[in-house]
## 1
Amino acid sequence: TGRKIRVFLLSNLDEYLAFQKEKLGTAIRNPAFYNIVRNYIVAYDMVQGQKADQIRDDVFTIERKAKEAEKQIKKEKSRIRKEAAKERGKINREADRWRAKILGDLGGDKKKRLRIVENWRRENLNRVNKWEKEQLDPLDGLLKQIHDGKAKNRDAIAKNRRTRHAANRVMFEKLFHEGFHAFSRNFLWPAGRTVFVPLWLDEGLASYYEMSVVEGDELVHSAPFPAFVTIFKKAQGEGTLLRIEDLLVATPLQFQVAGHTDRRTSDIHYAQSWAIAHYMVGRISRARMTAYVAAVVAGTDKVKAFEAMMGKSVRQVDADVRLHVARLK
């Protein structure tokens, strides 16, 4: 309660980079970070809310126009049907009048004369039906286009919603990650030792808890990190995994993404740090981790301190971690 951890959430990447340059004089492209000195978290809205809102508004504008066009087309169809029905009524009434006249007069061959009237009625009804169809078919085609467009718009809205949801989830994962750094700095390790916590351990555990979810009042963790599993297995297949000895002494530069070319180096450092952390949780106690950090602070060789914590050689740890990741689904 004595240390407030501020969280700055910027609305887009440009604001995020500008914030860093103003506060720190430089900027990294990692999606979020924790400033250990000033004790704050900074992230940006990867949902890109303004852009997503514009897409949604554009779709809704199209929907409104489509609805109005649909209304006008249906109104025109109704007018055509009424006009055709009116014309059919006139034809039937005229045919009835002629039939009544034929039946009431004294002229001969009434059947032939009635057939002539019926043929006239059918020809004229067919004419009206043809006219009605010629008028309605293009309108039905327009309605189909509108309905297809509305279906596409609904798909666009659903896709936009899924995109927002996915980006929002990623953003909160990054906040979980940086939240762990803040927790680590303020509460996890003995006072004064935080700045000496090996970077791989801090980033590995932060990445491990990044995949957490809150259910009720519990933090549920241990889920695999899909992107890091992919990166780890790809590097393993290519023979480009880092030596654990090198990972143990990695500096912030290996984890930061200052430019686009840094992404691959950063990814493999994060992926391997996460892999070891995921392997450790449940196997290595907090007491042994704390002892490891204390040993590093005291100047113990980092590889020897690591092996003491793990209870085995780095070679065996490397083999065990590879097997562990291979078994993850």
## 2
Amino acid sequence: QGLHRRRRDADDASRPGLIDRVEANADRVLDMVEALVEFATQRAGHASLVLADIDIAQVARGAVRDLSPSLDPSRIKISEDDIALARANGVAMHRVVTNLVLNALKYSSSDAPVELTFTRSRPGWVRLSVIDQGRGIDPDDLDTIFDEFARGRLAENDGGSGLGLASVRELVEQQDGVVAIESKVGVGTTVTIDMPSPRAIKPAAPSQRSKLSSSVRLPVEPTGQASG
């Protein structure tokens, strides 16, 4: 209300700046509402989340390709040869990767790389790691950073909703997976997603990758992206 009054009473020189502030605040509110709706939808859809044996490395590459060019996806380093078979849902994993990559890009400098790797964390599990060289997370926030609306002590006025990582945890746990985070201030953050896996293979030759991929049930592409 105060900002509205100042805009109404402002002279011609200051009015454009005030209008920009109003529009920016409106955009942040809209982003928050959209994030809340998406988070609530994810919880409501828990029972209908269908799992299948899919290649989450392929899903991750698709999520990276779907990013807007304005985000500079060339900063993202991801193998074109890895196969990481997991019992998961393709659409949900697409959202998980999108959220994590958007966070990594957002909280890193414009020339810092973001790396996605796939490994077997232990027998029967495959791990996706999203590694950045960003500002990191305060150690005192690591135990709560996946909670709803938790933004951490280092959060700036960047328009974040505090639901990005909460959404990731919700989706991963719905698929019987485990999410964890390690971070060091000024060095970067690594988020790991461990998913149940029948096998996790890094083929030695492209022909091996082609043979394996042909036996994998591929996910249906999502109609939109999740926000970070």
